[in-house]
Amino acid sequence: MAITLYELVGRDAARPFSPHCWKVRLALRHKGLDFQSAAAGFTEIPGLEGGYSKIVPILKDGETLVADSFAIAEYLEDTYPDRPSLFGGEGGRTLSRFVESWTQRTVHPALARLAALDIHDILDAPDQAYFRESREKAFGTTLEDFVADRAERVEPFLKSLEPLRAILVKQPFLGGESPLFADYIVFGAFQWARVSSPFRFLPAEDPVSVWFERCLSLYEGEGAKVPAAA
């Protein structure tokens, strides 16, 4: 049965940008599963699959619906155990939870301070209104003020990546010699910034940048198929 992945897009339906959707896209490729992408803007999500979820990604596998990127990864692992493992065992599943927690509490907020206004600018008008209202309420300031000092925020952000960098100078992936879902979790965050914002902050020689380029090339260049924002 066909697998459908509902993904978040802006004006250009061919440019999915959600970090959580990118995690699942690479997880599906890791498992060697064919899927079709279905694009949705922010304001379209509540109408998907009869209002099944307020968030994407949503995976539809036959008659089964699953929302939330980690829940989808666990579904794929448990439903297709004969295909390459996303976690490398139960210990890896638990450690991936830590990686997700760190990424969403350290990397995502920092990237939002760099790219929030650019994300707004790639959206359709109805989604722009939704995004501005919801994010400015959450941030307590305008999008413009939220990113006004982004150039000064780059160095502290790069320093915060030292735990990641220390691992990646010793091995090609967080998963070791080959990637696991933990890699896709962190990759999704950087891909979010790459696809939605032209602001560049990772030096090319940084081990994190080298790892990210390595991830872009995975699965016949799945990540690189969507060009960087310009």
UniProtKB/TrEMBL annotation:
Domain of life: Bacteria
InterPro entries in the cross-refs: Glutathione-S-Trfase_C-like (IPR010987), Glutathione-S-Trfase_C_sf (IPR036282), Glutathione_S-Trfase_N (IPR004045), GST_UstS-like_C (IPR054416), Thioredoxin-like_sf (IPR036249)
Residues in coiled coil: none
Domain GST N-terminal, first and last residues per copy: 8-84
Pfam family, one: GST_N_3
Stretches assigned to the GST C-terminal domain: 89-230
Protein name: Glutathione S-transferase family protein
Gene source species: Jiella pelagia
